[in-house]
Backbone:
């Protein structure tokens, strides 16, 4: 199938919201003790996740929480609360591995996170997002073997597509690409120190263009403090962009796995891509 | 589980914390014989900035908490005493800006000397501590309790104060900070002070709505600090806005710590405890932090 992906005719615009848990794993995985200025990840479970859950429930929109296994091990109650509140729990590495791993190191960690998230939530895990955006064909092969429906790590397109990683018929995974330079929180709060209200304008501007063109809006935020969005004003920002999108006709909010299921049910709408 | 509550009638507290960070800060990048030119922004903070800041705080009847390390304190004994005599709190900040985690066996001595010089100048021992760069060693909290500190203000992991027991029977209040409320970040990115105040006002309005602690961190310095005349004026306007909100109180670190210590909260274990084993087998990869292209 060589068609370009087109969501036209199905809904005006699909929206998926993602919260990357990024607790202490982010620092501990890099050999840094999560204390002092490195304690931002502790904020996720203490304040950020509960605040996000409350806001998302108030807005009655779905959301996918991408959780590193180590953070789930540290805060199983918090992960259970996410699932019990009806939100999707997906995988996000074990120790938020932001480095290249050989397959024999990576594969057991993918399984370890998967097993722990299943055990805590009592539900199968349907998706994965690479911590820091690194992956290989091995990653995708293991995800498929574990029954995952989608990956959400690539930055190469504005629409979902089937990403082929091998020659065998089933060697593909549904890719839900994202962008961590504009539809994310940390570039503005870590690097440019942009006032929150201007970040909201940026996200609205992104939405306006997407609503008119590609019709697929993927926002990724982090519930930690520091450069994340767990704090009051930044959770308020998330709420404001949700309210803004709701004002537009035909906007449909999906969890990532719900949207993946929609894509898989409409294979004719999706492009297949082989990156050689 | 009990959660922290502000006293009746108080919606939230604003902590005005100041980093003295004078020559000791410039000495991270140069040597004693070169504290001139570009390496004199720290001295600006003491000569030009401090009098202006103290006058503004007096106008607004705000008591601040000023963290001073030993190296700066011995250079500026009269300035430290003047701050103390003006009714502000002096808190500890170690001896210099060497990260505590790199001090090893001499950490305790550095913390003790930093405490002792402040005690000698002010006549009272400091109750609070904030680490340079927010960098703690795995032993710092324990040492702080041994040295008689009542609170630490180095973490950034909660909206409200809480309690830590780094060893059985010893309790430390933690007064967490907020990264976006540290002036040096936006100013080192060369934003205007108007832009910084826009960030702070938006952050404050949301923190106040939810009854969270509002921990401001202000530097005296002439480069990444808020004591230039125009910046003080902008800061004063924001502090006036904060003070005009019903139920908002300015509190020092030790006042907030006293509330936490009397709150009946259950002290938590040392935050590093749950991670010691993983950290022992994990190599350092701090250089992986995402950087601009």
Residues:
């Amino acid at each position: 199938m060589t068609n370009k992906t087109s969501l036209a005719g199905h809904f005006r615009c699909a929206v998926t919201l993602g919260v990357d848990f990024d607790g202490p794993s982010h620092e501990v995985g890099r050999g840094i003790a999560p204390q002092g200025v490195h304690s931002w990840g502790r904020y996720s479970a203490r304040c950020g996740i509960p605040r996000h859950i409350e806001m998302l429930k108030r807005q009655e929109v779905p959301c996918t929480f991408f959780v590193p296994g180590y953070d789930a091990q540290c805060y199983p109650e918090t992960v259970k609360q996410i699932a019990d509140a009806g939100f999707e729990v997906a995988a996000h590495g074990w120790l938020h591995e932001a480095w290249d791993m050989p397959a024999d190191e990576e594969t057991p960690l993918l399984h370890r996170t998967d097993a722990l998230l299943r055990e805590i939530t009592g539900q199968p895990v349907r998706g994965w997002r690479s911590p820091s955006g690194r992956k290989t064909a091995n990653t995708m092969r293991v995800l498929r073997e574990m029954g995952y429906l989608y990956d959400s790590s690539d930055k190469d397109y504005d629409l979902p597509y089937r990403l082929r990683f091998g020659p065998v018929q089933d060697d593909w995974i549904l890719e839900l690409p994202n962008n961590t330079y504009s539809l994310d929180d940390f570039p503005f709060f870590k690097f440019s120190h942009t006032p929150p209200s201007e970040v909201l304008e940026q996200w609205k501007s992104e939405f306006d263009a997407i609503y008119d063109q590609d019709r697929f809006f993927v926002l990724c935020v982090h519930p930690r403090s520091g450069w994340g969005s767990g704090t009051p004003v930044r959770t308020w920002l998330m709420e404001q962009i949700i309210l803004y999108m709701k004002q537009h006709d035909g906007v449909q909010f999906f969890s990532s796995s719900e949207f993946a299921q929609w894509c898989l049910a409409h294979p004719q709408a999706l492009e297949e891509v082989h990156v050689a | 589980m009990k959660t922290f509550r502000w006293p009746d009638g108080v919606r939230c507290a604003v902590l005005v914390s100041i980093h003295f960070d004078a020559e000791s800060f410039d000495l991270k990048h140069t040597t004693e014989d070169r504290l001139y030119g570009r390496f004199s922004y720290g001295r600006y903070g003491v000569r030009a900035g401090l009098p202006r800041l103290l006058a503004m705080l007096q106008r607004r009847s705000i008591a601040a908490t000023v963290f001073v390390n030993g190296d700066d304190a011995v250079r500026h004994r009269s300035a430290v005493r003047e701050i103390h005599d003006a009714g502000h709190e002096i808190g500890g900040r170690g001896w210099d800006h060497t990260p505590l985690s790199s001090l090893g066996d001499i950490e305790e001595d550095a913390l003790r000397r930093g405490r002792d010089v402040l005690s000698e100048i002010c006549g009272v021992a400091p109750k609070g501590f904030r680490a340079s760069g927010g960098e703690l060693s795995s032993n710092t909290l324990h040492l702080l309790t041994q040295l008689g500190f009542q609170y630490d203000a180095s973490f950034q992991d909660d909206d409200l104060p809480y309690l830590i027991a780094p060893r059985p029977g010893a309790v430390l209040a933690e007064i967490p900070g907020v990264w976006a409320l540290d002036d040096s970040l936006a100013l080192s990115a060369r934003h205007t002070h108007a832009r910084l105040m826009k960030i702070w006002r938006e952050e404050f309005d949301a923190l106040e709505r939810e009854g969270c602690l509002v921990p401001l961190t202000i530097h005296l310095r002439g480069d990444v600090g808020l004591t230039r005349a125009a910046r003080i004026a902008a800061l004063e306007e924001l502090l006036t806005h904060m003070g005009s909100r019903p139920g908002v109180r300015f509190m020092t670190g030790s006042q907030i710590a006293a509330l936490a210590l009397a709150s009946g909260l259950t002290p938590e274990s040392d935050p590093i405890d749950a991670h010691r084993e993983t950290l022992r087998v994990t190599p350092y990869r701090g250089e992986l932090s995402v950087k601009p292209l």
Remarks:
- Chain A has one domain: 13-274.
- The first strand of chain A starts at residue 13 and ends at 20.
- The radius of gyration of chain A is 18 Å.
